[in-house]
Amino acid sequence: MAESVMTQREEPRIRPNEGKIYLRVKRAVDIAGSLGGIVLLSPVFLAAAIAVFLEDPGSVIFKQKRNGQGNRVFEIYKFRSMCKEAPKLQGQMQKFNELKGPAFKMKDDPRVTRVGKFLRRTSIDELPQLFNVLKGEMSLVGPRPLPTYETEQLAPWQRQRLLVKPGITCYWQISGRNDVEFDEWMEMDCRYIEDAGIWTDLRILLKTIAVVLNGKGAY
User: Fold this and answer.
1) In angstroms, rounded to a whole number, what is the distance separating the alpha carbons of residues 59 and 57?
2) 8: phi then psi, degrees, rounded to nearest 5
3) Are 124 and 48 in contact (CB under 8 A)?
4) At 164, is the secondary structure helix, strand, or coil?
5) Residue 12 has what pLDDT?
6) pLDDT tens, position by position, 55-90
7) What confidence tier does 96 reach under pLDDT thresholds 50, 70, 90?
8) How far apart are CA 12 and CA 10, in angstroms?
9) 2 domain-assigned
């Protein structure tokens, strides 16, 4: 079944919603939502930053190069949830990857700090990406941006996710997140591109709130 899907998607066939009204509304919502979120959640930002620093002194913000719309590279922001030495240990941890595909996921990753586990479970670690949204590098809703080294390993049909601006949340987040297999995740991203619209984005945002409160699939 997986082979037939890949064969059907060898050539780009997805047409993203490029309607001017939709894109303008989406950008307006992104600006208002990210700016409002930064202001309203500023106490949470401060508390998270202090907690990260107290447990493992160093930079509280983790930056990583990711691929955005049109394969443009940008730096994504997250609260650091791993020890400072985590990037150096990535090669040693690869054999413990629990997800089939280029993305790395491990439920009990020893590099994750105690504070980091809480930040991930509550999705607070993702809050700094509101600045990425405000800058126009990301959207509130869109396929999750992958690290550059993972994007390089995507199959041609999977690279179609780069046709649209990446986001903080999408179908993957409201469908199990890390409990979803990689190919299914990529299929969800392609489906979002085909479904994208004002009401689709609003529905995803509302469902994301429920998922974050539930914590399902977050680790």
Assistant:
1) 7
2) -65, -25
3) yes
4) coil
5) 55
6) 999 999 999 999 999 999 999 999 999 988 777 777
7) confident
8) 7
9) no
**Number of domains comprising the chain:** 1
In a domain, 10, yes or no: no
7 located within any domain: no
Count CB neighbours of 121 within 10 A.
Answer: 14
Q: What residues contact 210, with CB distance under 8 A and at least 6 apart? A: 174
Q: 165 near 156, Cβ under 8 Å?
A: no
Q: How far apart are CA 69 and CA 207, in angstroms?
A: 24
Residues of the chain with pLDDT > 90, as a percent, come to: 68
Helix, strand, coil percent values for the chain (each to nearest 5)? 55, 10, 35
Helix, strand counts (H, E) of the chain: 9, 4
Which one-letter amino acid corresponds to residue 210? A
With helix as H, strand as E and coil as C, how does 45-90 read?
HHHHHHHHHHHCCCCCEEEEEEECHHHCEEEEEEECCECCCHHHHH
Tell me how far apart the alpha carbons of residues 214 and 210 are, in angstroms, rounded to a whole number.
Answer: 6
pLDDT given at position 11? 53
Whether 76 maps to a domain, the answer reads: yes
pLDDT the model gives residue 178: 72
Domain limits at 29? Answer: 15-214
Residue 217 scores a pLDDT above 60: no
Mean pLDDT across 206-218: 79
Q: How far apart are CA 183 and CA 161, in angstroms?
A: 12
pTM for the whole thing?
A: 0.87
Yes or no: say if 169 and 145 are a contact pair by the CB < 8 Å rule.
Answer: no
